[in-house]
Amino acid sequence: MTVSLFDPIKLGAIEAPNRIVMAPLTRGRAGPGFVPNELALEYYRQRASAGLIISEATGISQEGLGWPSAPGLWTDAQVEGWKPVTEAVHAAGGRIVAQLWHMGRLVHSVFNDGKQPVSASATQGAGRAHTPVGRRDLEVARPLRLDEIPRLIADYVAAAENAKKAGFDGVQLHGANGYLIDQFLRDNSNLRDDDYGGPVENRIRLLREVTDALVGVWGAGRVSVRLSPNGDSQGVDDSNPEPLFTAAAAALDTLGIGFLELREPGPDGTFGNTDVPKQSPAIRRAFKGPLILNSDYNVALAEDALASGLADAIAFGRPFIGNPDLVERIRTGAEWAADNPQTWYAPGPEGYIDYPALVPA
């Protein structure tokens, strides 16, 4: 039977009415203290027709958040800020999970009282950091000590518990795009010689342990993971990605998580080397649960991925920026509105909640 983007799907314990997922999108509109505000409420409410919304990347701790005006989930104020957002999404008939984020070596010390960023090893990220005081060169990170790993996992657990208090439907572990989990996975950023470095089974250990801890909070069916098995991602890369990512996928399959999302950019993508062969076919064989593919899909490519069995659902990112009613536009064959990259991270409502729907709400 041919699968359609509009067929319902069970993503673990989450019943999605369609297979059009809203991918996580950093937008930088949180208020002081990294607290979501009424702008976020309206932004997510407008997009509640997605089969599932994956929230923008959300910091698990001050140590792990290095993006101006991104939201967090480590304080009571942040939890209270998220509650109206999740309530608005649910009132509009939607479902939303919180993506849990630790940026690792990409956090500039400006965000953390001058403290050196942490990573798998003493390495430095590529590019420059966005900070409240302008662009700054990234710094050399210090390696997390073995005795700090339990504290790091506890930070993820606390954020997952806060996500539950805030009314989310589940959580997603951000293991992609060159951030902390990815820094442990790949061999050009993980130079450790202990139980978390060296062979593939060691480099996937933190991913497995954090995911297992999240399962302990939410149950496996409400936990998901995002990976980016493409080439260089913000300076993070691996010399032999297929065995690495298939082992990671197999470990996640054993944990029984609700779904796995892969970001594999196309020719116009970001955070990845598009010349590297995609790993999704091999990962599909290793992970038996629902597999969601993301990045640079149009309707035809999405339908092909579903029809071929390569994917069970498709996560659309940038199209959801300019098209709050993307699901309806796909349903009716309407043209997609263009978004404005100049306002992706700009403060205020412009380019955030002012894109018109086909039919005004």
End-to-end C-alpha gap: 35 Å
Instruction: Please tally the helical runs, counting DSSP H or I stretches of 4 or more residues.
Output: 11
Radius of gyration, whole Å? 19 Å
Tell me, briefly, the overall form.
globular
Low-confidence runs (pLDDT<50, min 5 residues)?
none
Beta-sheet strand percentage? 15-25%
Helix content: 25-40%
Structural category: alpha/beta
Overview of the molecule:
The structure is a single chain. The chain is an alpha/beta fold and about 350 residues long. Helices cover about 30% and strands about 15% of the residues. The protein has eleven helices and 14 strands. The chain has helices at about 40-45, 75-90, 150-165, 180-185, 200-205, 205-220, 240-255, 280-285, 300-305, 320, 325-330, and strands at about 10, 15, 20, 50-60, 95-100, 120, 130, 135, 140-145, 170-175, 225, 260-265, 290-295, 315. The strands form four sheets. Strands 3-4-5-10-11-12-13-14 form an eight-stranded parallel barrel, surrounded by five helices. A two-stranded antiparallel sheet has the order 1-2. Helix 6 packs parallel to helix 7 (about 240-255). The longest helix has 17 residues, at about 150-165. It is globular. The mean pLDDT is about 95.
